[in-house]
């Protein structure tokens, strides 16, 4: 599951610690100094990456995927996975 904390770290490589209080984020660097973040950019990227959670929720379990490969082959598995990827594009 994608989290805003992950996005903050992606966009701000110097952030080491994040304190969360409701919708408020206090970010600190390795020295404990405050790091200013662009929350609009974080929210935009969080929304943009929402496809990851949607895909993860819809993919068959790993056991079911392996069973599909065993019984129907890799091409059938690729077709099944492609359905979800096409439904929730990047």
Model description:
- By secondary structure, the chain is an alpha+beta fold.
- Strand 2 and strand 3 (34-35) form a beta hairpin.
- It has helices spanning 4-11, 39-48, 51-58, 62-72, 74-87, and strands at 17-21, 24-28, 34-35.
- It is built from five helices and three strands.
- Strands 1-2-3 form a three-stranded antiparallel β-sheet, with no helix packed on it.
- The mean pLDDT is 95.
- Helix 1 (4-11) packs across helix 2.
Secondary structure elements and pairings:
Blueprint: H1 4-11, E1 17-21, E2 24-28, E3 34-35, H2 39-48, H3 51-58, H4 62-72, H5 74-87
Antiparallel strand pairs: 1-2, 2-3
Low-confidence stretches: none
Q: Structural class given helices, strands, pairing?
A: alpha+beta
Written as H for each helix and E for each strand, in order along the chain, the element string is HEEEHHHH
Q: What is the residue-averaged pLDDT? A: 95
Any idea what the shape is?
elongated
Task: Tell how many strands the DSSP assignment holds.
Answer: 3
Helix fraction by DSSP (H/I, runs of at least 4): 55-70%
What distance separates the N and C termini? Answer: 15 Å
- Provide the gyration radius in Å: 18 Å
What is the beta-strand fraction?
5-15%
Q: How many helical stretches? A: 5
Strand order of the largest sheet: 1-2-3
Main beta sheet: 3 strands, antiparallel
């Amino acid at each position: 599951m994608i989290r805003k904390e992950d996005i903050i770290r992606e966009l701000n490589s110097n952030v080491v610690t994040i304190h969360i209080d409701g919708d408020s984020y206090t970010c600190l660097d390795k020295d404990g100094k405050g790091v200013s973040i662009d929350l609009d950019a974080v929210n935009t990227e969080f929304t943009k990456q929402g496809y990851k959670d949607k895909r993860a929720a819809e993919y068959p379990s790993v056991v079911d995927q392996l069973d599909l490969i065993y019984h129907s082959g890799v091409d059938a598995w690729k077709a099944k996975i492609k359905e979800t990827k096409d439904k929730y594009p990047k």
